[in-house]
Amino acid sequence: xxxxxxxxxxxxxxxxxxxxxxxxxxxxxxxxxxxxxxxxxxxxxxxxxxxxxxxxxxxxxxxxxxxxxxxxxxxxxxxxxxxxxxxxxxxxxxxxxxxxxxxxxxxxxxxxxxxxxxxxxxxxxxxxxxxxxxxxxxxxxxxxxxxxxxxxxxxxxxxxxxxxxxxxxxxxxxxxxxxxxxxxxxxxxx
Length: 190
Description:
Oligomer: single chain
Strand content: 5-15%
Largest sheet: 3 strands, parallel
Order of helices and strands: HHHEHHEHEHH
Mean pLDDT: 76
Distance between the termini: 72 Å
């Protein structure tokens, strides 16, 4: 019985110590790391290439959109690191899932946009200029039944891949080429 009581007491103390040391209010701590980075010094390296902002544009506020995706963190880094200020830009950043719509309507000037949304917006007549890209696509999977063991078995099968618009997707072209399929649904291979 004494062993049981000692074990129970030790267990209770262990749980208490774990609770007191393992749990903390992380809102009261910071993981900010200070660096010697000076955005004005870094931007100065490119002033010859970038030139000066024309006087008529110095008060213009760039409306920039991003959505909840780690690939779009550069919008926030540019602001937080002082890069926009060092460039002399006034930037208003908005988090939204409606970037294509906001850009098409003129409410937004710049946006981080997935390639699929950009292609759709352009096909629908939105004036679009892609200044930069950080990658084509993200994680995509082609899920098939267990009895499919070879890409040749996909020919003639119905695939749920996005219908007619899939032929505009760069990733599908890559996949189709790798699988030996035509990227155009009109060819009737899938």
